Amino acid sequence: MTGTQTNRPAAVRARSQKPARQLSYFESFVQDFRQYLLTSTLHGLRYVGEKKLTWFERFFWLAAFCSAIVCASFFILNVYAKWKLSPMIVSINPENIQLNKLPFPAITICNVNQAKKSVAERYKNDGGLIDKKLLESLCLSKPDADIFENELSEKADWEHTRSFLINITQPCNEMLAMCIWDSIRMSCQDLFNAQLTDEGLCCTFNVVHREKMFRNPRELNDMNITFPNPSVEWTPESGFPDDAPPDGFPWRPQGIGTDHGLTLLLDANVAEYYCSSTKTTGFKVLLHNPIETPNIAKLGEVYGPGIEVRVAIEPKILDANPSLKHIDINKRLCLFSSEKELFFYRTYSLRNCEMECEARAMLDVCKCVLYYMPKNKTTRVCGTEDAKCYSDMRKYVLNGRTHNCDECLPACTEISYTERPSSAPLNKELIKNYINSLNLATNRSPEYFISNMLIVHFYFENNSFMRFTKEEVFGLTEFLSNTGGLLGLCLGFSMMSLVELLYYLTLRALCVARKNKTVTPFVR
């Protein structure tokens, strides 16, 4: 009896106790969100969740936090726009390039005389009608379409025109009277090759071997050319191979000054002038990259006879960081050699691309190409019957309407050469001593030298040269650093702040949800 009475209040008390009310998902979320605000490392959020503050104070801190987010976003968007719109910068590379890492420039020389007088008069007096018309086309500014009649144009094919140009132009063995390379007198025929250019037949020094310049060198059909051995695979982007021999071709400068450069004695042979591409006598000279064909008609420097010229060579070097490859081409506006493959040339450059583009446009419109353009054995060379077509195409190019060549961008790595000449007139008495000192086997008088000859020295002045490098303004690391700095300045944000936020949104939320799924035992 007593035990029953003793136990009854306990049972009543047990039945009267209610189980703790479980929080709803929303209430749990609000509780966790308040806890996040109170413990967050982001500046100002703990004041938003603090119950002791008034609603006005908490609203003030919320507005301040939102303003900080807007400010940080504004500056981050500016950094992002700069990263995307101007991703590249050209800066001076602190490491200069050494002289022995550069090739000596290719040098193309043309006599401005378009036709030897003795040959031209023979064609004029005894030649056929086709040869007379070709001579007129060479020497007059009159359009070819107005010179050649339809019945004659079909007979003047490329082989006949090629033979005419070779016969009427001063050959290299007459123009190059003496050649000295690195203080060693050498045969000019071993140094120079004849080349058909937009100026006619010219002489070129130190271009890369044809097998290294063209994809199918055996398909070319213009001139028979020999090259010194051994030849090496040189490109502006890769440079000389590590195993390249010191005398590998293209040749490298052996030092600074005229004694380690190229010295030439050129004979203009003024008495044989019949018509000239300029208003004077002398030579057109162009320094260019060894992998490119020369555009000497428009870019060549003119040097007259009767002077001695010193040409100091100044290379302009522009290279690029390989990290630029992931930047869109339309933004960096340059091409790596692996990004565009040319049809004729093995190495990409702006000049080579433009040459192919002009040849392709000429071939599409006129069904032929001009003789100095890249071609193969199956490509038809424009003859006189195509005069009207290629004359119109030339006007089209000169007017700047070359929209089809927009695909040609500068190479990301380029080497060009500029010249800084200085000259003085030859002296009659001193020329006598010069002839004797070189043991020149010539019967040319000092008067002939002063009227016809040009002495020119090509050389480098420095052992190293400044180069300009294209680099990223902001890489991914720099962008993240700038973004993190702005977020830290405005919000106190760090990587751990991100981890903290992810924790409350994922792991903490899952744990609370699992806890709320626990079933309360049935009480009878």
Could you characterize what this model shows?
The protein is α+β, with helices and mostly antiparallel strands. The protein is 40% helix and 17% strand. The protein contains 20 helices and 15 strands. The strands form 3 sheets. Strands 1, 4, 5, 8, 11, 12, 13 and 15 form an 8-stranded mixed sheet that branches. A hairpin with a 2-residue loop joins strand 6 and strand 7. Helix 4 runs antiparallel to helix 19, helix 15 crosses helix 16 and helix 17 packs across helix 18. The longest helix is centred in the N-terminal third of the chain and has 31 residues. It is elongated.
Concise structural overview:
With 524 residues, the chain is of the alpha+beta class. 40% of the residues lie in helices and 17% in strands. It has helices at residues 2-16, 25-39, 45-49, 55-85, 117-126, 129-139, 144-147, 150-153, 158-168, 172-175, 188-191, 210-213, 296-299, 329-332, 350-366, 387-398, 428-438, 446-452, 476-491, 495-516, and strands spanning 88-92, 97-98, 106-111, 176-181, 184-186, 192-197, 200-205, 262-267, 283-288, 301-303, 307-320, 414-425, 453-460, 464-465, 467-472.
